[in-house]
Amino acid sequence: MTVAENLQRFRDSIPEQVTLVAVSKTKPLADILDACNSGHRDFGENRVDEFVEKCQQLPPDIRWHFIGHLQSKKVKKVVPFANLIHSVDSLKLLTEINKRAAAINKTQDCLLQIHIAQEESKYGFSFKEAEDLLISEELKILQNVRITGLMGMATYTDDMSQVRKEFRALANFYNQLPATKSKLQILSMGMTGDYRIAIEEGSNMVRIGSAIFGERG
Ligand SMILES: *Cc1c(COP(=O)(O)O)cnc(C)c1O
Which atom of ligand 1 is nearest to the CA of 23? Predict the structure, then answer.
């Protein structure tokens, strides 16, 4: 099956209202073009240099999602191309994104990454930290960023009840946020191994790599 066929099959298997971000990391430009020519527009990358390179070489109407951990010193490279940054995990990073967006007269859409997994290594805010940030004065003065939703990654485990529990907790948090809620529209959760559960638990944006492009080497 071609990438375009895989993608179409996958698209048809999930509800229409769920945005499909095709995660093309490590995959060649030809694969992305194949998907692009079939009409798909949302692609995700997780490494800055690869992200920039692909953004520069591929059609300008692609909606690029930056989904990987982002260091402040690399924000400048990412902001000119990113439609949505999924991985904001600190106020410091958000402040830098605001600065770089202001410099090019852009309002950068961002998701707050929430730490829901049991692993120590995953980045992100706790629920409390995210809620504090969303109602803070610090956020109000950042005129060139817009928090449009939340992103979370579940624990990497075969225990699907654990995965479900984590997605459910994030969805509950998303649904219960107070006054700021009306501005939050995106709940980005679910990858190849756990997207079905994520969608059942309320995800409206999934980030899918291997199921579309094949296993990464
Ligand atoms: C790689 C990656 C994905 C996609 O992973 P698959 O298991 O290949 O679908 C999704 N989200 C993030 C943050 C990733 O780094």
Answer: 4
Q: What is the rounded CA–CA span in Å between residue 14 and residue 22?
A: 13
The two structure tokens encoding residue 147: 């928090």
- Is the CB of 188 within 6 Å of ligand 1? no
32-69 residue pLDDT tens: 999 999 999 999 999 999 999 999 999 999 999 999 99
- Is 26 close to ligand 1, i.e. is its CB under 6 Å away? no
What's the rounded Cα separation, in Å, for the pair 135 and 108?
Answer: 19
**Is the distance from the beta carbon of residue 202 to the nearest atom of ligand 1 less than 6 Å?**
no
Q: For 123-148, how does the pLDDT look when each residue is reduced to its tens digit (9 = 90+)?
A: 999 999 999 999 999 999 999 999 99
Find out whether 205 and 187 touch, Cβ atoms under 8 Å.
yes
